[in-house]
Amino acid sequence: MSKLLHLPFLLLLPLLSPPRAGAASSHHHHLRSLNFSLFQQETINKTGYIVVDGVAGAGVGQTTTPFGTIFVFNDGMTVTPNASSRVAGIAEGASITSSLDGLRSVSFAKITLRIRGLQGSISIVGGTHNIKPADHPVVGGTGDFMFVGGYVRSSPVDLEGVTVVYKIEFHLYWPPYAANGPSK
Ligand SMILES: *[C@@H]1O[C@H](CO)[C@@H](O)[C@H](O)[C@H]1NC(C)=O
Ligand SMILES: *[C@@H]1O[C@H](CO)[C@@H](O)[C@H](O)[C@H]1NC(C)=O
Ligand SMILES: *[C@@H]1O[C@H](CO)[C@@H](O)[C@H](O)[C@H]1NC(C)=O
């Protein structure tokens, strides 16, 4: 066979071979990520208030609120479940009870963070379940968290007593075009 006949086949080779694992993971390395957990401390009538009464369904209980209840909060987020531990974030937001059993709500919040040398805020929106873990998409951020994506998972830790505690796990990703954030 002549060299000329070989040429098109050689040019096709890169297209025929399956993508190399190395190439895929090196592409992945451009996405900087950060995982950490904080504990949201919420005290009824101190850091969180019902501002609009609900209209139907379950009554006001330790874990339920009537459908349509609007609750606003400004909660400290500590580094351990202990309320006396260092505050590394503030969660400001509201939730609206959206199920008749009084357990589910739609929430939005701005979480101001000062953690691992990073400063700024992230904004989250999503459904919350009062007694089960729930994931909330991160819709964006400011400061060192500008353009951030990912999700936060909120799980109840302690629902007894005046102060309720939720564990908030942050899974944050910075796109390649974000100038700030953790170093590569
Ligand atoms: C964060 O967790 C995700 C999985 O949830 C993982 O893919 C990622 O590598 C982790 N990032 C860091 C910096 O540990
Ligand atoms: C919070 O305040 C409201 C209105 O004053 C009251 O009805 C409710 O019982 C209080 N809740 C708690 C847990 O103290
Ligand atoms: C919480 O932290 C405070 C101050 O560090 C400490 O005195 C207290 O014993 C801790 N509480 C628990 C339940 O660990």
From TrEMBL:
InterPro entries: Allene_oxi_cyc_Dirigent, Dirigent
GO biological process entries: phenylpropanoid biosynthetic process
Keyword hit for Secreted: yes
Secretion signal, residue range per the UniProt entry: 1-23
GO cellular component, one term: apoplast
Keywords attached to this entry: Apoplast, Secreted, Signal
Compartments reported by the entry: Secreted, Extracellular space, Apoplast
A Pfam family per the record: Dirigent
Family: Belongs to the plant dirigent protein family.
Record text on subunit structure and interactions: Homodimer.
Function text: Dirigent proteins impart stereoselectivity on the phenoxy radical-coupling reaction, yielding optically active lignans from two molecules of coniferyl alcohol in the biosynthesis of lignans, flavonolignans, and alkaloids and thus plays a central role in plant secondary metabolism.
Name listed for the protein in its UniProt record: Dirigent protein
Organism per entry: Musa acuminata subsp. malaccensis
